[in-house]
Amino acid sequence: AVNGGASAPNWASAASGAWTEEGNAINTSPATSLDVDVSDADVYQVLFNVADGGGTSSVVIRLNDVSTTTYRSMLGTMIDGGSMNAELQLQTKWLISNAGSDYGFSGVCYIYKNDSNFSASANAGASYTSQLNKYDGGDPYATSISSGTNDTITGAISKITFMCMKENTSANENIEGSIRVNSLSYSW
Q1: Where is pLDDT greater, at 178 or 54?
Q2: In this structure, how many other beta carbons lie within 10 angstroms of the beta carbon of residue 12?
Q3: Which helix (H) or strand (E) covers residue 84, if one does?
Q4: How far apart are CA 10 and CA 23, in angstroms?
């Protein structure tokens, strides 16, 4: 920004902010979930490289252990250069899901808390966007972009959980691998 009122233009202070590491979770053998407790922030970045224990599940993410609502997810999947197919699905109690029977998932997810900086609905919920690759012997190049909203969160985001579960159910297929969570808050 340029400061006003000066005899010659000069740059004002820019918004400050830097990524802060919130934590890592690692499972070296299949377990129920990968969990990271987080401080309240504007944006979270989740880097993940995980595999399921059942071979027929989807990777999912959950915020604050909220489990009383069914969330909506928009799924767009691009496979081996094919056409983009978008579908609206209801995922029981979870935010992110990618259809198929793939064994491994890696990528990045960004979670934006709805607040004064991302004001879809002030202090009501969180939205996310993610991009991931899915791996198995028959479909090693599949890429999926997902986005959605959890509008039931009205306070601080305190916990981010990853699991593998059968799509459109609450059946846990176990998860192994790692997630790393970073956060960013803005000051103006």
Answers
A1: 178
A2: 10
A3: none
A4: 39
Residue 76 has phi, psi (to 5 degrees) of: -125, 120
Q: H/E element holding 45?
A: strand 43-52
Neighbours of 20 (CB within 10 A): 13
Instruction: Tell me which residue of 117, 111, 109 sits closest to 179, measured CA to CA.
Output: 109
Question: Measuring CA to CA, how many Å separate 81 from each of 75, 85, 144, 174?
Answer: 16, 12, 12, 30
Most confident of 29-43, 59-73, 86-100, 122-136: 29-43
pTM more than 0.85: no
Q: What are φ and ψ of residue 22, in 5° steps?
A: -90, -35
Q: For residue 13, what are its two tokens? A: 């202070």
CA distance 188 to 178: 34
